[in-house]
Amino acid sequence: MVVFAGQGDLRRSLVLLWRTPGEAVTRSGPGPRPGLTVDAIVDAGIAIADASGISAVSMREVGKRVGRTGMALYTYVPSKDELVDLMYDRSLAELPTDYDLADGWRAALSAWTHDYWAFCLRHPWTLRVSQARPVLGPNENAMLETVLRILFATGLGAHVVRRVVGTLINHVRGAAQTVVDSRQAAAATGVSDEDWWAARSAAFEEVVPDFAERFPTIVRLAREAATAPPDPQQPYLEREATETFDAGLAVLLDGIEAIVRRGTREPREERVPEGA
Q1: Is residue 236 domain-shared with residue 120, that is, in the same domain?
Q2: pTM, entire model
């Protein structure tokens, strides 16, 4: 299930996200009850999402967790739409916002990327929140401010930095999603990655005996890039995704470094052939 931010009332959402002084978001009826706050409600929603996924979050379930009815929460948060926005932004507050550039931008950017990767694995439900429309909360902006500060230390121009940020975020989220899917697949089917592949490998050899002749390059890759024996502490696909993440990050950092060395501050304009 993909969740799109900003489905609730625009002004009310922003007031809650930014805790605008002097503004209040309430519904008619009894006033707020002592001992309950917006932060407590949001934290309860995050705990439910961490344990059972974003689809398990509802005003009723959050109410149960904080000892209130679902209806009682509407005095604090107008609807589930605003709640999800608040949950996403609040969770991002875990990310560090200060990286030492003394060892250069590459070390800082690598540290930021690994921190974001670990965050996504701690809160896999955040991967269901689409990047197509940002939440526009303070912590989401703090995350962006942090990585931009590192990237501008490279000396690259704004156009390049803008594309690099998107590429890095997509790389992290894509690799993390594979790990999350692997964990969920084993839990949902009761079959480990290793057992799933072992069963299909045996059957595949019988059903497609000429596979090596038809797809020699795939076979070469499997043979020459054979992985280490399975680690019972880390499922096969999870290990593969982690290694792919690290390898992909190294390629991205090398690419950024190559652009920096070339002294390109703005992207090259590609000439479009006539008639294309």
Answers
A1: yes
A2: 0.88
